[in-house]
């Protein structure tokens, strides 16, 4: 069943279904150096469909976000053990950027992980990725840590997180 979450002009923001995954993988290959197996996409969709979201314009996929949930130590509370949503990957095709699609994807995934009673939401992002860092900051994420040589090419990541409630 297709669940439309919001409409941004001619762009539909909706939950992903299995038949979207090939297009999601294509966007990932075009936009990011981190790639995953088919099985990984399928397992994220099976485990957290509430926060696996696509953006589509006239039948063309232009963006996605996919997430998972985990239990672990809080990024905010000392010694707290919490349920966390984790943004695994988000991207919007180059030609469709700066129109609010990335923001809508993150906001709808926040709603999705809230439905699953997550206390916090976090992600890693390349320290040099200003567009993405600004997007997350705009939505209330804060830099909690710098992860040394997190990426295969040696670049550091920022761990950014937000408390949900
Ligand atoms: N310069 C400055 N700020 C920017 C820029 C930019 N080029 N792009 C986005 N922002 C910030 C702004 O604050 C913007 O709000 P504003 O337009 O009101 O100023 C806010 O982000 C929202 O912008 P959107 O238009 O919603 O974002 P967009 O649809 O362009 O998507 C994204 C942003 C997903 C980061 C896109 O640039 C992209 O796909 N980049 C390549 C893939 C990538 O880097 N993904 C993130 C990796 S980290 C991870 O996956 C966990
Ligand atoms: Zn991660």
Explain what you see.
With 165 residues, this protein is of the alpha+beta class. Helix content is 27%, strand content 37%. The chain is built from four helices and eight strands, in the order ββααβββαβαββ. It has helices at residues 21-31, 38-47, 101-115, 130-138; strands spanning 4-8, 11-15, 53-57, 60-73, 81-92, 120-126, 142-147, 157-163. It has an eight-stranded mixed β-sheet. It is globular. The protein starts with a strand and ends with a strand. The model has no long low-confidence stretch (mean pLDDT 97). Bound molecules: acetyl coenzyme *A and zinc ion. Zinc ion binds next to strand 5 and strand 6. Zinc ion (ZN) is lined by residues 86, 88, 123-124.
Name its key features.
globular, binds acetyl coenzyme *A, eight-stranded mixed β-sheet, binds zinc ion, 27% helix, 4 helices, 165 residues
Sequence stretches where pLDDT stays below 50 over 5 or more residues: none
- The residue-averaged pLDDT reads 97
Helix content: 25-40%
Number of strands: 8
Which ligands appear in the coordinates?
acetyl coenzyme *A, zinc ion
